[in-house]
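Working notes for the structural subgroup meeting. M.R. asked for a predicted model of this chain before we commit to crystallization trials. I am recording the input and output together here so anyone reviewing the notebook later can reproduce the run.

Input as submitted:
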Amino acid sequence: MTRKALLWVVMLVVAMPVVAQEHRLADRAKDEVIRFLALTPEQVTEWDGLLTTRHDTLAPLREQLRAVEEQLRELLEQPSPDPTAVGNLVLQGKGLKDQIETANKAYLDGFEEMLGAEQKARLHFLRRAERAEPHFPAFRHFGLLPPLLEHKR
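Returned structure, recorded in token form:
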């Protein structure tokens, strides 16, 4: 076995547990969303479709964005980068970021559209709580919120 092949085997062996752990974390996170929002099996199936569509849309856009950002970085490392080329790459990057934002919005809109009123209220509650979360430590410090150890699931 060549050194290069051996290196690939070692990298795969090291990476496999990390990938498996990330997959388990994603599964647990998905289960938590399903439980908290009380999604029906039909909603879970619809959500799976939305996730697949989002992934299939975003993966190539992110790859294109990485390539554009790499080209821009290389160009800016030159002693006298061509301003037109820099501008074109910046505009390409902005266009790709806009497409990514549009795809994410379509995913979020689609997700919310499949929810019932109570489920939407729960989702909106979490979004409001997320905005308040940075304030929790200060309120805990002064005893205005219970310590984390006292919280029950």
